[in-house]
Amino acid sequence: MVTIGSILTKKGKDLWTIHAEATVYEALVSMAEKGVGALPVLDDPKKLIGIVTERDYARKIALKGKDSKTTKVSEIMTPVEDMYCVAATTTAEEGMVLITEKKIRHLPVFDNHQFIGLISIGDLVKSVVADKEHTIAHLNDYISGKYV
Q1: What is the 3-state secondary structure (H, E, C) of the chain?
Q2: Cβ-based neighbours of 47, under 8 Å, separated by 6 or more
Q3: CATH placement of domain 4-143
Q4: What confidence score (pLDDT) does residue 133 get?
Q5: Among 107, 102, 112, which Cα is nearest to 123's?
Q6: Rounded to two decimals, what is the model's pTM?
Q7: Rounded distance, CA 104 to CA 63, Å?
Q8: Could you give the CA distance from residue 24 to residue 62 in angstroms, rounded to a whole number?
Q9: Which tens digits make up the pLDDT trace of 40-96?
Q10: What is the model's pLDDT at position 82?
Q11: C-alpha–C-alpha distance, residues 87 and 116, integer Å
Q12: Which long-range contacts (CB under 8 A, 24 or more apart) does 63-70 make?
């Protein structure tokens, strides 16, 4: 079974974050440059205090007529207490169930209470599909007599 920790390992060590005192505009620029839809918000190295997403911008800035260049990330982020998080040992399928049930797109990942990364719905879908394709290939080989 594929774990979220193994997905993070394959994904690589790149983790883009933002500080709570940065502006929402700075967060949007960073998301656009990195091609991501969310940034973990840290108050010091590796201390997760929240997450800011494109959805936060759309609902809390654009729709309310606020200015992204003057509004701080801390004003619109989802605080860590309100976030769904997973352990590195959580399976990809368990992560998919959580993301689907809670209608969220990103999950912070912890290992021994230490924040180690962020997994997206795209990362999970890619992993689950690859795992299923691998299983299908093995079953196909078995049925066709390749393992005789």
Answers
A1: CCEHHHHHHHHCCCCCCEECCCEHHHHHHHHHHHCCCEEEEEEECCEEEEEEEHHHHHHHHHCCCCCCCCCEHHHHCEEHHHCCCEECCCEHHHHHHHHHHHCCCEEEEEECCEEEEEEEHHHHHHHHHHHHHHHHHHHHHHHCCCCC
A2: 115
A3: 3.10.580.10
A4: 81
A5: 107
A6: 0.84
A7: 20
A8: 11
A9: 999 877 799 999 999 999 999 989 999 999 999 999 999 999 999 999 999 999 999
A10: 95
A11: 9
A12: 68/23, 68/24, 68/25, 68/28, 69/23, 69/24, 69/25, 70/23
- The single-letter code of the amino acid at 132 is K
Amino acid at 124: L
The whole-angstrom separation of Cα 92 and Cα 31 is 24
Distance CA 69, CA 137 (A): 51
